[in-house]
Write a structure and sequence with these properties.
single chain, 32 strands, alpha+beta, nine-stranded mixed beta sheet
Length: 1232
Amino acid sequence: MKIKRLFTMEGEGPYQSLEFENRNSIIRNPDGSVVSEWENVSVPKQWSQVATDIMAQKYFRKAGIPKHLKLAKERGIPAWLQPSLHDQATEEQVAADAESSGEETTISETDAREVFHRLVGCWTYWGYKHNYFDTEEDARAFYDELCYMLANQMAAPNSPQWFNTGLNWAYGLDGPAQGHYYVDPKTEEVIASNDAYTRPQPHACFIQSVKDDLVREGGIMDLWTREARLFKYGSGTGSNFSDLRGDMEPLSGGGVSSGLMSFLKIGDSAAGAIKSGGTTRRAAKMICLDADHPDIEKFVNWKVHEEQKVAALVAGSKTIKELINELFAAIHDWGDETVKFDLKLNKDLRKVAKKARLAQMPFSYVYRIIHLSKQGYTEVVFDEYDTDWNSEAYQTVAGQNSNNSIRLNNEFMQAVEQEKDWELFWRVEKVKAKKEGRKPVPCKKLKATELWEEIAYAAWASADPGIQFDSTINEWHTCPADGPIRASNPCSEYMFLDDTACNLASLNLLRFRDPKTGELDVAKLRHGSRIWTIVLEISVLMAQFPSRNIADLSYKFRTLGLGYANMGTYLMVNGIPYDSPEALAVCGAVTSIMHMTSYATSAEMAKELGTFPGYERNKENMLRVIRNHRRATFRAPDREYEGLTIKPIGIDSQHCPPELLKAAQHDANLALKLGEKYGFRNAQVTVIAPTGTIGLLMDCDTTGIEPDFALVKFKKLAGGGYFKIINNSIPSALQKLGYEDSKISDIVHYIKGYARLEGSPCINASVLRSKGFTDEVLKRIEEQLPTAFDISFVFNLYTLGESFCKETLGLSDEQLGNFEFSILKHLGFSGKEIEAANDYICGTMTSEDAPHLKQEHYSVFDCANKCGRNGKRFISAGAHIRMMAVAQPFISGSISKTINMPSDANVTDIKEAFTTSWRSGLKCNALYRDGSKLSQPLNVNVEEQLWDEDEAEESVAAVQPPQIRIAEKIIHRYIAKRRKLPHRRSGYTQKAVIGGHKLYLRTGEYEDGTIGEIFLDMHKEGAAFRSLMNSFAIAISLGLQHGVPLEEFVEAFIFTRFEPNGMVTGNNTIKMSTSIIDYIFRELAISYLGRNELAHVNSDELQASAVHTQNETEPEFDNEQVVSERTLSSEESQAFLEQEENEFKGVDFALLKNSEPESEQTLADFSANSDFGTKTPGESWEAQERSMSSLVLEARMKGYEGEACHTCQQFTMVRNGSCLKCASCGATSGCS
């Protein structure tokens, strides 16, 4: 194929016009502690710090790259494209010449250009090797153009490409095979991979089949194994479980089935365990179920019931913990020692016992506390749960590790409209009826409207299940001859046959604009679509897959997933409201150009390389689908569409820019013409993915097809901390709408504030000086203002200083320790005065009522959520649906997008949104009502106002509740019993390299094979650190010899996080650790406790270890004596801060007309590297002395979801398609 140059010049290299600079990348915890730090990271100068962090923390290969490389000299490959090999001879020579033999032999990636070369070079190598390019010059142009596009953030592939692609080609990495398969392009045979790296796993999205079989290949338990292999490499998977028999369905051998739900709960637990130990990112899964399954009602209400369990755990744990403490206090505070344990004579104890009974606390627990008090205990540890998504309460219940979707066909939707019955069928009966050519006999009948009501209520209450419209999906199916589409990937954008895979890439639409006009440059978009379609096709060629069947079918159908990001930003900078006819027309035209160009490229490749193997038997259906795509481009009459029940929404020529419409229609004609002549290389070519992590890498303000989630966001500074910035598209949009620079400046400051005390009403420097504030303290306050979203968080102990707070302001420790205490109110400022100053300094964070802004332009700046404290506008659910509906006719797969709904939406609104989606031709729908998850407790804060303390005493007599099981942990007294080790003892020595640091672990064992001691030695570490590790080993050894179970040490020390950490080499089962201590106790747990879930390589992939045997006799002890006796305090066993949520009430904003002391050039503030204010090391997420609820509250007020990131623990998670992503580190719960 010919590759033209559009962005680069031959002989100049891809980075000729770019400037690179070195930066540091730091990821911090909410308390300011460093999670990881990467120094001297080289990236393009125009990249933001967030993009730098994504590249450094997630996509750089951290370890294991040989320091010395040589070219492989492969025949037929140009010198510049040769693979690299580990140069052992040079390495040995350098080591021999060096003074010290301990020189590191491996390095890591530190330059973005190394990553670009690794990816693009690998794609170019495989493409050149298999004749994708006409000449070497075409291959070189392909390489240069892609490097340029990556460096300029014009496009990005999905995360598994960044993780896995090119490690063997660029660095010669190899390793043992992981159970993958690939198809040899020459023989077309499925072959087991010989190693882990020669062929990468670049695919993010998988759909896997599951049979109604327990343990055999392709069955239920086999699916959990296949899912684990995908999760381990950072991919996502979905499956349709409709073949599994329902609850109480008769079995052929007698008895009845345990039902679908029992197996789903097993799979959910397995997925959760794998996620918790993932080293790249969280994986995700999708569970699909047909609406005629016998267990459909249980499935629909699954997450509703699990959310109720969480509510019960949270409320019950708080109530019981409070009662336990009151019981202990009533006993030990009673004056008469002789009767303090007597329920009849101790009145305080009797009063609390009655209160416990009214609260339906099991009365046996009251007696338990009395008995413990008699033994001298003054407290027990009783866990208090909260509604945070990562908390133990959510980990305790099922259904939290997947997205759930119901497959609804047109027959069901029509039954709802006509209020007909809906039939459910036993699975075996459906199979028998199909074989016998008859209609199946239903096992149960429901009213379709009743099931519809259950679905809508469940979605309203728990944001699950989503809907997949089965009939619409399969009417757009390009390959029905090979079976129906039954499932999707976790984010719902990839929909195709079972046991297939798709790799994704997205174009950043903002980078494809004409720099002069701001309009879309069609030539650039076509060029980008063509070249990235080739990239994805080559990725299919070079890939390995997690099972034989997936390798076979992915090769036969070669499905691709090209999409775009930043559609919402593109519309805003052009002054187009997201919910407008023009926006819909632009979206349809842009999507059509990308989609049909990709299909035209696929036909072009079919001419050169042949069609995909399944094309001929699906030719007529595929061309029918392409013709329907083309008709939507021309907005043909409904009667012209072939085989579609729901007619698509075409491009509206009255509102579409003429040049876009002309280009879309030309590309549609070309794709159909080439397809009819040559066929197609790929069964599918496009999807709209959520673009979570890669969206941050490309500095996209919006992801996928989404609008912006808030006008004001908080991004991380290069030196750490967070910085408030306004959406960079707002000034451009205002300029496009015709506003003058001075008016733009006023609007911008209204939204983001002035970030200074000078000019502020009520609270300013002169007023504060009169209250005792010094210049030094005022300077510290000024430094924090640019990062603050509320000035109340600047006036705190850490900013003002402890001595100033106590000596000058006269504050006590109790006041300073109370998060609800307001220093500003203590200084005498009223609520209205604080509000007025806050709006001036920190901004309103909304465009509503902004000075100079015309009301007809408000809609241009509407976001998915209400902006700021006082914002009322947001994009309606109907607008989200309409935007999806105009893009869907030009997408092979589907669209991953969240349809946001306000908290006051009702069940009827949910049903209307679902019905509108079906009638609009969408393939799927995921609704998210604000507050539908318990993990957002701040939406429900009226209970404090309604509670009356006296109501508990006035309640009617309680009924004895049923016995329930309470999880608890009692602190015991330990008696030391030292057990001697033999003088000659067995054990093993394990050498490993952790983050580039060598560690030697030696164990000593008793005769029965149990561990009794450990020795630790660090190679080339400082004397102090080596001594510290030696002392730590002695302490652990003494604990083991005195009877402390190894399990206690393991639970205490795994997942500890400090440096050195990272990749582990030299160990067969452990490949990543968060610290040296984490690695030590993972190794001991695997070797001596059989804790294989802590390993990164399955135990069945390794030979059995003989390092230990089972205990056969009781251990012998000597010198038995009591050496210590103590009861741990509550403070030592828990760290939960019991603080009530702080109420924040919105107030009306009175427009402030304070003139600035100096004029400003606003547009200059919004360059790619603009920062509002001075850089400061302060943190926005200061967790010390702050409750979890206060952090969640702050996050919600900033526009985030209020959930902590599982990777960096920041509260910067935002809704992203069907998933969540972290705006700080880029971690995502999705699969792209």
